[in-house]
């Protein structure tokens, strides 16, 4: 089984077509609240099993998954200190799944992409 980390949306289409059953994709999935959350996707027929970083699970079609496009300067909302409340801010540094957020209210936090979401 392979774990593919998709970085650019242009490559997402080609990566998905080339996947074998059991291959994994790292990307963003749209949850029922309309936000995009980090997840691991496994192809299943015409859909994808989505295992979200926060522990949630869903079956999604391809219109509800995309590559992780976050980079330094991207506006996101993150779960401050893991307490369940999301606040807006910008990514100021990234190292794999570890990121630093400068929140709009002036607070800062080192966190992981699994605690963030985007519109």
Protein architecture, described:
The protein has one helix and eleven strands. By secondary structure, it is mainly β. The chain folds into two domains: 3-66, SH3 type barrels (Roll); 75-117, SH3 type barrels. The strands form two sheets. Strands 1, 2, 3, 4, 5 and 6 form a six-stranded mixed sheet that branches. Strands 10-9-8-7-11 form a five-stranded antiparallel sheet, with no helix packed on it. 22% of the residues are buried. Residues 1-19 have low confidence and may be disordered.
Percentage of β-strand residues: over 45%
Fill in the CATH topology of the largest domain: SH3 type barrels
Find the count of extended strands (DSSP E, 2+ residues).
Answer: 11
Low-confidence stretches: 1-19
N-to-C SSE string, H for helix and E for strand: EHEEEEEEEEEE
Tally of separate domains: 2
Q: Write the CATH architecture name of the largest domain.
A: Roll
Mean pLDDT: 84
User: Given this structure, which CATH class of the largest domain is correct?
Assistant: Mainly Beta
By oligomeric state, this entry counts as single chain
Structural class based on helices, strands and sheet pairing:
mainly beta
Largest β-sheet summary? 6 strands, mixed
State the helicity in percent bands. under 10%
Determine the number of helices (DSSP H or I, runs of at least 4 residues): 1
Shape summary: elongated
Integer-rounded radius of gyration:
14 Å
The termini sit apart by 31 Å
